[in-house]
């Protein structure tokens, strides 16, 4: 049944990013028209074998795509635009973004076969445009990427400020500082609702400044005069890239880039006017020709990604870059929760090879791109919203920010989860329904629902294995020869206590018990074979494997 959506109400519907950090997708609805903010991915999670990327299920808005006015991107991080290459063909809406995000997205779409079909509209920093009942204004913020934006969304029912990812950084190194005056002006205008990033709500104080990181990196490089230096960081953190380059140059080191995404980001940044002062960045191959104490490599792979440059360097199988004992690797990035093991694995490989490893735990060489509690309180003071809706966080983050908002005298707080339909106006803000939501898994080149039979069966195989059984019956339902059984995921070779002929005997006994009608019914025979194996397999192997039966019927000529 279709969800009842009154027309003369302003609605907020998150389909991703509320209840988890990542895969953000948010909808604003008014008068049966919809505006989408962000469309991101997250990385594979435990329980999804073979899946590297997940994203929100857009079915709710896909069913209303003729009412979808457009997609507005707050910035170019993967968790805010990474799903566009996968989901845009299902929606086919115009996209609005500031220059860097637009350029970055175009580079990603170039790998698809529909890139020239996507209408991307570039909105200058601080720009403003209208779509249906929505009047959208970009508000410059700071974050760990170029051109992050909050959105001031004016509607017939009131003004909403959607923060995107943000922090207050007086020294961002590249780009403009957060437009505090604009935020304060919006507060004076009257902010009905603040939809706000919750990522660092448990962190006291303020987010640190990129300017401090730049100074600390220069000092660290000065204290490392010998050997090559390699720095692992997020490729999209262009401010960090600039900080590293400047710190390297201050210490008489040239800079090379190792990693495809680094080259993609720097090309996009240069295309819109950033990093133009650094035309002489080297390829990784050229950087290896420079004397060790005169070079610094910036590498992808700060999260231990197996195919990234730093991982391959640590394993010694990078086609170009080699590090030796006495060289130094600097991890200038935070550990994303869930990546600790893979990061530790790479760091241990490096240390075993005699390479010095320095992390943000050792030196002040990283700051977050998200607001701490003091920053959040300042945002509340500037915008003075009547309603706070925390997003971009797990449930514990959302609840904590709601509590902080209450402490700061925001009159109303509504805690969302993916799929909640929240009425912002008229009346008090509250949940009025639940929209269809879920998670899609990128499995090779196709998208599967997280709760699909394919994913469920794959999990079962991972934990319990799979057994393949081939049984041949003649026209009378009698077995021809012995069943063929293989179970490579359950045991390597047959031992004295686990014998396949025992399982074959169980199958034969069960098939012999079928009556004349059952033995001629394929479904009944397959079910009987599975039933005959479940108990003995569990008793002998301690597993409940998936049992796949291939039934063959032949006509024997007498």
From TrEMBL:
Q: Which CDD domains match?
A: RNaseJ_MBL-fold
Q: Which SUPFAM superfamilies match?
A: Metallo-hydrolase/oxidoreductase (SSF56281)
The family database entries (Pfam families) matched by this protein are listed as: Lactamase_B, RMMBL, RNase_J_b_CASP, RNase_J_C
Domain Metallo-beta-lactamase: where? 22-217
Q: Which keywords belong to this entry? A: Cytoplasm, Exonuclease, Hydrolase, Metal-binding, Nuclease, RNA-binding, Zinc
Task: Please identify the protein, giving its name as recorded.
Answer: Beta-lactamase
What species is given as this protein's source? Thalassospira permensis NBRC 106175
The beginning of the lineage is: Bacteria, Pseudomonadati, Pseudomonadota, Alphaproteobacteria, Rhodospirillales
């Amino acid at each position: 049944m279709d969800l009842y959506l009154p027309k003369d109400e302003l609605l907020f519907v998150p389909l991703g990013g509320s209840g988890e950090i990542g895969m953000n997708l948010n909808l604003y609805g008014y008068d049966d028209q919809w505006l989408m903010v962000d469309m991101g991915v997250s990385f594979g999670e435990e329980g999804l074998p073979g899946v590297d990327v997940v994203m929100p299920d857009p079915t709710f808005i896909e069913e209303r795509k003729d009412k979808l006015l457009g997609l507005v991107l707050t910035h170019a991080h993967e968790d805010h635009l990474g799903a566009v290459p996968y989901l845009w063909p299902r929606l086919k809406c115009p996209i609005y973004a500031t220059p860097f995000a637009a350029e970055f997205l175009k580079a990603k779409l170039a790998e698809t076969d529909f890139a020239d079909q996507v209408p991307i509209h570039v909105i200058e920093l601080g720009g403003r445009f209208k779509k249906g009942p929505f009047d959208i204004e970009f508000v410059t913020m700071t974050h760990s990427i170029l051109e992050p934006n909050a959105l001031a969304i004016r509607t017939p029912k009131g003004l909403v400020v959607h923060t995107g990812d943000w922090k207050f950084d007086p020294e961002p190194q590249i780009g403009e500082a957060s437009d505090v005056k604009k935020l304060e002006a919006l507060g004076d205008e009257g902010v009905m609702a603040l939809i706000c990033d919750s990522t660092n709500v448990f962190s006291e104080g303020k987010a640190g400044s990129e300017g401090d990181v730049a100074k600390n990196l220069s000092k660290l490089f000065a204290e490392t005069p010998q050997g090559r230096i390699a720095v692992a960081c997020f490729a999209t953190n262009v401010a960090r890239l600039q900080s590293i380059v400047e710190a390297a140059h201050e210490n008489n080191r040239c800079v090379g880039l190792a990693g495809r995404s680094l080259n993609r980001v720097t090309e996009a940044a240069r295309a819109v006017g950033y990093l133009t002062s650094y035309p002489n960045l080297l390829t990784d191959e050229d950087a290896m020709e420079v004397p060790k104490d005169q070079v610094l490599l910036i590498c992808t792979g700060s999260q231990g990604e197996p195919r990234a440059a730093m991982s391959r360097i640590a394993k010694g199988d990078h086609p170009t870059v080699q590090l030796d004992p006495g060289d130094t690797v600097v991890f200038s990035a935070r550990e994303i929760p869930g990546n600790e093991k893979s990061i530790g694995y790479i760091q241990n490989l490096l240390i075993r090879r005699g390479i010095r490893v320095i992390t943000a735990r050792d030196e002040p060489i990283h700051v977050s791109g998200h607001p701490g509690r003091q920053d959040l309180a300042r945002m509340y003071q500037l915008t003075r919203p009547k309603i706070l809706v925390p997003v971009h966080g797990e449930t514990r983050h959302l609840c904590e920010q709601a509590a902080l908002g209450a402490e700061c005298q925001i009159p109303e707080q509504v805690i969302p989860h993916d799929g909640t339909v929240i009425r912002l106006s008229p009346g008090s803000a509250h949940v009025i329904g639940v929209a269809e939501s879920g998670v899609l898994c990128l499995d090779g080149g196709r998208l599967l629902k997280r709760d699909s039979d394919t994913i469920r069966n794959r999990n079962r195989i991972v934990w319990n294995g799979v057994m393949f059984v081939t049984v041949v019956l003649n026209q009378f339902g009698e077995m021809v020869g012995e069943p063929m059984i293989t179970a490579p995921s359950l045991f390597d070779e047959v031992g004295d206590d686990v014998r396949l002929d025992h399982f074959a005997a169980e199958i034969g006994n069960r098939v012999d018990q079928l009556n004349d009608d059952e033995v001629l019914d394929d479904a009944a025979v397959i079910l009987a074979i599975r039933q005959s194996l479940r108990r003995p397999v569990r008793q002998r192997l301690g597993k409940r494997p998936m049992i796949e039966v291939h039934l063959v019927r032949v006509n024997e000529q007498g």
